[in-house]
């Protein structure tokens, strides 16, 4: 099993996407189906942007086993008070700065759900959020 | 449509990735919203955007997009160019608005995704 770890700082949009980029390189080297790679890195990138947009800091852990990629994104931040609301397309609490970057359209979590085979979101308001995604291949 | 034709039609300038000017593209998507770009299933499309930040390159990378047009006379900085070069992408800059650039390319045969 291969494990990759990345740290993400809240508000650091210059570096948001580096975890997805590094993960993509490793998955390519492992000769994983390009469609699975795309689904994984798109969802991972959405998650990275969410941490940069909403949290103080976060950690991304990607594990690759024989037939599965697991991504855990754990952040320290304000948390999500109503997860079912956050899963709705178009619902967003993003700042104007985030919107200027081309995000904050309320598509992040729905798009992660679309791309992952399993998505689990746990959040403690005032403490942080943990997102777990599974991609099968 | 060849990228070199797109450059000509949009009175654009190549910023990096000159080796890709002979690439052939059939579809395009115009957006300033990277969230929308990330929902697309189509690959190898031409991305037309008025944003000029590093996230357009990161978005293009994960979405398997290698050809970008920056419209509205926006200019990308050196960091963006360096990243785009490392990912083998071409960036061209056009002085036209997104509407005008999209209209010209559409009327010359470039197809929308939907």
Gyration radius of chain B, rounded: 12 Å
CATH class bucket of chain A:
Alpha Beta
The largest chain-to-chain contact, stated as pair and per-chain residue counts, equals: A-B, 25 and 21 residues
Strand order of the largest sheet of chain B: 1-5-4-3-2-6
Number of E-state strands of chain A: 5
Helix/strand-derived class of chain A?
alpha+beta
Helix content of chain A: 25-40%
The percent range for strand residues of chain B is: 15-25%
Please report the number of helical segments of chain A. 5
Number of domains of chain A: 1
Strand content of chain A: 25-35%
Spatial extent as radius of gyration of chain A: 14 Å
Counting DSSP H or I runs of 4 or more residues, the number of helices of chain B is 5
**Overall average residue pLDDT of chain B:** 97
The level of helicity of chain B is 25-40%
**How much is the average pLDDT of chain A?**
95
**Which second-level CATH architecture of chain B applies?**
3-Layer(aba) Sandwich
Q: What's the CATH class label of chain B?
A: Alpha Beta
Can you list the strand order of the major beta sheet of chain A? Answer: 1-2-3-5-4
Coarse morphology of chain B: globular
């Amino acid at each position: 099993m291969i494990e990759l770890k990345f740290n993400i700082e809240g508000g650091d949009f210059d570096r948001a996407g580096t975890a997805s980029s590094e993960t993509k390189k490793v998955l390519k080297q492992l000769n994983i189906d390009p469609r699975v790679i795309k689904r994984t890195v798109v969802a991972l990138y959405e998650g990275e942007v969410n941490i940069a947009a909403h949290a103080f800091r976060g950690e991304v852990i990607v594990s690759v086993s024989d037939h599965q990629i697991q991504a855990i994104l754990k952040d320290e931040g304000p948390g999500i008070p109503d997860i079912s609301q956050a899963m709705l397309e178009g619902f967003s609490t993003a700042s104007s700065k985030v919107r200027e970057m081309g995000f904050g359209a309320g598509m992040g979590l729905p798009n992660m759900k679309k791309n992952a085979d399993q998505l689990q979101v746990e959040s403690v308001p005032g403490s942080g959020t943990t997102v777990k995604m599974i991609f099968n291949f | 449509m060849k990228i070199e034709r797109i450059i000509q039609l949009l009175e654009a300038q190549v910023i990096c990735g000159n080796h890709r000017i002979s690439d052939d593209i059939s579809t395009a998507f115009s957006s300033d919203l990277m969230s929308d770009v990330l929902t697309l299933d189509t690959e190898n499309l031409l991305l037309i955007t008025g944003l000029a930040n590093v996230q357009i390159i990161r978005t293009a990378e994960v979405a398997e997009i290698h050809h970008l047009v920056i419209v509205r006379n926006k200019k990308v900085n050196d960091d963006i160019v360096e990243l785009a070069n490392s990912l083998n992408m071409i960036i061209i800059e056009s002085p036209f608005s997104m509407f005008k650039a999209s209209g010209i390319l559409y009327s010359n045969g470039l197809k929308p995704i939907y």
